[in-house]
Amino acid sequence: MIIILFVIRFRSTSACAQTASANSPSANSLSAITTTTVSSTTTTTSPACASCTLSQLTLTGGTVAGATPVIPTAGSILTNASTGCSSVVITCTGTGNTLQMEFNAGNNGVITGTTTVSAPLMCDSNGQWELSLGGTTAVITAVDCISV
């Protein structure tokens, strides 16, 4: 008697399944994405010549016998775009024949006109208002006007 024996060998697919699942992401594995935001702060410091305020000026009507006191008015503080420094124009408007504007009680100059007198004040590097008049520059803290 002759016996023929055939051996059929089947490969196991479990090894392939294990390899496939090890190399591909499963539903439970997620990649984390991290976003980093970097911010920077720029500090700009204004020059001292931009720090003047109207509260540094006393604007009053003058007190001269026979004259009418006129209270000066300050315009808006303006800033020079190229220097960053401030300026303001002080104006007196009167009704008499002569109008007089005094600075620091007349100690730092007088401007005379008819019905309107104006003077530009500049904020200096020490943060003080100053006036240049007649070749002299002085710190101004008070302006008064009279009309005669």
Automatic annotation (TrEMBL):
Residues 49-145 form the C6 domain. This is C6 domain-containing protein. Residues 1-17 form the signal peptide. It comes from Acrobeloides nanus. Keywords: Signal. It comes from the Eukaryota.
